[in-house]
Each structure stands twice: as structure tokens, then as C-alpha cells.
Amino acid sequence: MNKKILSGLITASLLSATLAAPAFAHQQGDFIVRAGAMMVVPNESSGEVLETLGEFQVNDNTQLGLNFTYMATDNIGIELVAATPFTHEVGLGATGVIAEVKHLPPTLLAQYYFGDASSKFRPYVGAGVNFTIFFDTEFNDTGTAAKLTDLDMSNSVGLAAQVGMDYKINDKWLVNASVMYADISTDVTFKADGVEQKVKTDLDPLVYMVSLGYVF
């Protein structure tokens, strides 16, 4: 009888420990918020500017990245990518840096998470739509000295693709790394010595993000 009682107590203890163990999971209904460093690395190309000055060059920039994911099922998530405004310097061949521009690139993605709800490590892929808003586009002193004025850039809508991974630290906290490609094209308009100009420019950046996440 004592052996049966002891066996029953051990079984009950193991069951209790199993039930009390944290659920390292992405489950249907979870809401995940991530925040960290996001770097935009443009892969720019443009038409020749004024036929002789070459193409635009755009530098990298890092800002606070945010994303918000809702798990529609254990394996399918819907994510909104956001960030604080990015600021880029625009160069033009031997002329040097001629302008500074800002943009916001909100992106909506559908994601597929590999593994199951009990996995601590969840790699994923995503695809969706990027909407990039350009603002505060201004020529600097070098640009205005070259008689360039009235800089403007059209907003962009394009496809986006993503790969990433989450690693659960516990049932609430996780670390994340991801890379996203965004199809961003804009018409750059300006005046050169008073004459209207328009140059189609593709930015097509890779967007890298390392972040810490919390599961609600």
C-alpha cells in the first residue's frame, strides 16, 4: 500500500510540474510586441541626373524599430512593421552630399511560423505590402550652390518579403532577428537652375532588425 501511495504521489508531482512549466509558445490569439534597432540599407539606382552628374547615392540609417504581430493560428501571424522616421543623406557623384530626406516605411505582412506551439525557436517567413512616405526633403548648402531647388519625392507602394526568427526566453519574453526586402520606387522632382527635372529612383532596401519582444 505504501508503494502504491508513493507511486501515486510521484505521478501527481510530475503531472503538476508539467502543467506548471512555462509554455514556450506562439499560440493562436497571442499578441506580440517587439522593439529594437532597425537599419535600412538602400540598394539605390536612378537615372542619370542632368545627364552628366551621375546617379543618386543614399546612405544607411538606423532607428528604433517596432512591430506588432497577432497570431491568427499557431503558425500564421499578421504583422505591422513600424519605426521612428529614417533620415538619409543623398549624394550625387563628385558634387558630394546635396540633400537630406526623411521617410516612414510602414509594412503589413502575412507570416508563416515553422514548428509547433511548444517550440522555443520559431523561424518564419513573411510577405506583404510596404507603403513608404517621404517628407522633409531638402537640398543642403551644397545642393543650393549647384542651383538645385524645390526637392520632392513621391510616396511608394510595393511588395515586401521577410525572413526572421523568434527565440522564447520564457513564456512572456523573446529575442528576435529579421531581415526584410522592400520594393521602394519614387519619382524625385526638383528644379535645376529653374528648370523642372524628374528622375525615377529605386531604393529597394534590405531592412535589418534585432529586437526584444513581449507576448500578451
Question: Your description of this structure?
Answer:
This protein is mainly β and 216 residues long. The protein has a single domain, classed as Porin. Helices cover 11% and strands 61% of the residues. It contains 2 helices and 15 strands. The strands form 2 sheets. It has an 8-stranded antiparallel beta barrel. A 4-stranded antiparallel β-sheet has the order 2-14-13-10. The protein is elongated, with a radius of gyration of 25 Å.
Helix content: 10-25%
Strand elements, count: 15
Report the span from N to C terminus: 46 Å
**In the CATH classification, which architecture applies?**
Beta Barrel
Runs with pLDDT <50, length 5+?
12-21
> What string gives the helices and strands in order?
HEEEEEEEEEHEEEEEE
Which class best fits the helix and strand makeup?
mainly beta
Major beta sheet, specifics?
A: 8 strands, antiparallel, barrel
Estimate the strand proportion.
over 45%
Overall 3D form = elongated
Please give the count of helices: 2
What is the gyration radius calculated from CA atoms?
Answer: 25 Å
Count of distinct structural domains: 1
- Give average pLDDT, whole number: 90
> In CATH's first tier, which class applies?
Mainly Beta
Give the strand line-up of the largest sheet: 1-4-5-8-9-11-12-15
Quote the CATH topology. Porin
Which short descriptors sum up this protein?
Porin, four-stranded antiparallel beta sheet, eight-stranded antiparallel barrel, 15 strands, mainly beta, 61% strand, 216 residues, 2 helices
